[in-house]
Each structure stands twice: as structure tokens, then as C-alpha cells.
């Protein structure tokens, strides 16, 4: 049931202290990060092996450049998505959990953007190597649009539609 707040307005949400809210938000964030970390680590691990295959030497200069950019993006995504764990470990017990949750949330969002870029460039490279058709950029753009819809547009629409903040 909603509590009466200042000015007679109804208050929505949980009745929790700032620390309790930070604890809950941290647990939720860590679960989200685990899912994203798994994806980026599998993709990044695969990318690291490509340079050691015979096929790598057969890639055009453009494809090798796309590969190098993809590896760097994967490394950056990995760093951003592992960052919240390191942040928590280094500030644990310092009474800054609300601030740490906010920073970890930003790192996670950055990691998702970098994962999107890594996935996009990986898909571009794979499709360029697998097929030399001119439709590859359009197919990649379609997949990127799908990711943007699933990862950002629908969540932001939901936030806008169902919350007052």
C-alpha cells in the first residue's frame, strides 16, 4: 500500500533505506552483469583465437582492420563489464555503496554499448568473409536495429511509459 508523502502525494515503491535500496540495486545489477559478461567473454575469447588461424592471413587489409577494431572493442567491453566487480571489491566496507551502484550502473551501460559495437563489427567481419555480397552492410544494419530495439528502445519506452521519472 502506498504511503502518504510530503504534500499529500502518494508515494510509490518500496519503503527501504538508502543502504537497503543500494544493496537491492547492487544485487540486481550483478545479476545483469553476469549475463552480459558471459556473452562478451565468449565472443572475446573466440576473437582472440582468430589471429592464430591460417584463414587470418588470407583476409584482406580491410577485413584485418575490422578484426583488430573488433578485438579492441571486445577488450574494452570486457573491461567495462568486469569493472563493477572490481569497483565493489575496492570500495566494499567504505560506506559508499549508493555511489558505487551508480558508477557500476554507468560502467554496465557503457559495457553494453561496447558489446553492441563488438557484436556489430564481429558480424560485419564474419559476413564479409562468408559472403562477398553487397547486402552484408544492410543485413548488419538490420541486426543492429534489432539490438537497439531490444536493448535500448523498448527499455527506454517502458521507463517513459510506466514511470513518472
In words, what does this structure look like?
- The protein is mostly helical and 165 residues long.
- Helices cover 79% and strands 2% of the residues.
- It is built from 5 helices and 2 strands.
- Strands 1-2 form a two-stranded antiparallel sheet.
- β1 and β2 form a beta hairpin.
- α1 packs antiparallel against α3, α3 runs antiparallel to α4 and α4 packs antiparallel against α5.
- The longest helix is centred in the C-terminal third of the chain and has 34 residues.
- The chain is elongated and about 60 Å long.
- The N terminus is likely disordered.
Summary, kept brief:
With 165 residues, the protein is mostly helical. The chain contains 5 helices and 2 strands. Helix 1 runs parallel beside helix 4 and helix 4 (97-130) runs antiparallel to helix 5 (136-162).
Amino acid at each position: 500500500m502506498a504511503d502518504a508523502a510530503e504534500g499529500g502525494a502518494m508515494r510509490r515503491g518500496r519503503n527501504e533505506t538508502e543502504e537497503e535500496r543500494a544493496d537491492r540495486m547492487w544485487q540486481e545489477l550483478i545479476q545483469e552483469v553476469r549475463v552480459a559478461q558471459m556473452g562478451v567473454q565468449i565472443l572475446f575469447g573466440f576473437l582472440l583465437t582468430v589471429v592464430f588461424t591460417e584463414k587470418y592471413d588470407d583476409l584482406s587489409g580491410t577485413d584485418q582492420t575490422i578484426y583488430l577494431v573488433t578485438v579492441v572493442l571486445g577488450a574494452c567491453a570486457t573491461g567495462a563489464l568486469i569493472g563493477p566487480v572490481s569497483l565493489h571489491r575496492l570500495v566494499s566496507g567504505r560506506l559508499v555503496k549508493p555511489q558505487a551502484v551508480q558508477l557500476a550502473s554507468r560502467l554496465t551501460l557503457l559495457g553494453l554499448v561496447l558489446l553492441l559495437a563488438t557484436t556489430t563489427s564481429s558480424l560485419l567481419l564474419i559476413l564479409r568473409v562468408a559472403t562477398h555480397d553487397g547486402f552484408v552492410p544492410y543485413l548488419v544494419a538490420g541486426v543492429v536495429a534489432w539490438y537497439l530495439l531490444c536493448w535500448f528502445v523498448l527499455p527506454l519506452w517502458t521507463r517513459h511509459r510506466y514511470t513518472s521519472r
